[in-house]
Amino acid sequence: MSARRSALFTPADDADMLRKAVDTEADAFVFDLEDAVPAEGKDAARANLREVVPTLDTDREVAVRVNAADTDQFAADVDAAVDCGADAVALPMVESGADVRAAWSALTDRTDDPPRLRVTIETPTGMHAGAEIADACRETGAVSLSFGFADYCKAVGAPGTPDRIRERLELLTVEYASMAGVDPVASVHLDIADTDGLRAVAKRARELGFVGMTAIHPAQAPVINDVFAPDEEELAQARRLVDAFDESDRDSLQVEGVFLDTATVDRYRRLLDRAGGE
């Protein structure tokens, strides 16, 4: 399965859009049963997943965003995600560790080979329960943690989407993801036409430790991929630094002007791991 720098949201109530998603440059797909689908369209959307997903010719990750664990749509959404063979389930509106455990239990009750769980925090309640959610992620099949920028702004009553709120959510999310031992994934940039803004947000996210970012339009995927892909010189230096440290019998040393010890060299190991172990 390919790297997951960009993940494109696509509404599941449009079968043609599901098919066309795999023609984009996104590294992964999130087929949406939640916000993008009105209540009257959810049954049809689940039917689309069962019909379309098994026919897609791709080795990229297909995730299904289900409705929240406390909704009356959740059980049917999980059934559809398992039935269509989704690689992951994107769980929104997580406010407690219990939400994560309930979702994982629902998946493991339905199959011995459950989709991976991708967790999203979107409210102040969820952010304040971040350590508890991190514990639950570590104990279950969760592989990533993200934040919902627009929903969080709505929850706190912000009249827009202030960058100060986004920066706070980014810092909290990378901390909680680190505690959980899962990948931090940055939230969407809402202005589709603002390519410069998208690039700036993605660059900041990568600098903080995020490994990728979600997208709401196919045109955003190439920009996100470019930002989150290390260049060849960056990878080459990482290889040299790791090799030099591994070949040394010292606990700390300086190579190419870079101070290395166990903690700092692990950053370079992670960089190489995320690039496919090159």
Notes on the protein architecture:
The protein has 278 residues and is α/β, with parallel strands linked by helices. It has two domains: 6-228, TIM Barrel (Alpha-Beta Barrel); 232-274. The chain has twelve helices and ten strands. It has helices spanning 15-21, 42-52, 74-84, 97-110, 124-128, 130-139, 149-156, 163-180, 195-208, 220-228, 232-247, 262-274; strands spanning 6-11, 28-32, 61-65, 88-91, 116-121, 142-147, 183-186, 212-215, 252-255, 258-261. The strands form two sheets. The protein has an eight-stranded parallel barrel, surrounded by seven helices. A hairpin with a 2-residue loop joins strand 9 (252-255) and strand 10 (258-261). Helix 4 (97-110) runs parallel beside helix 6 (130-139). The radius of gyration is 19 Å and the shape is globular. 42% of the residues are buried. The model has no long low-confidence stretch (mean pLDDT 92).
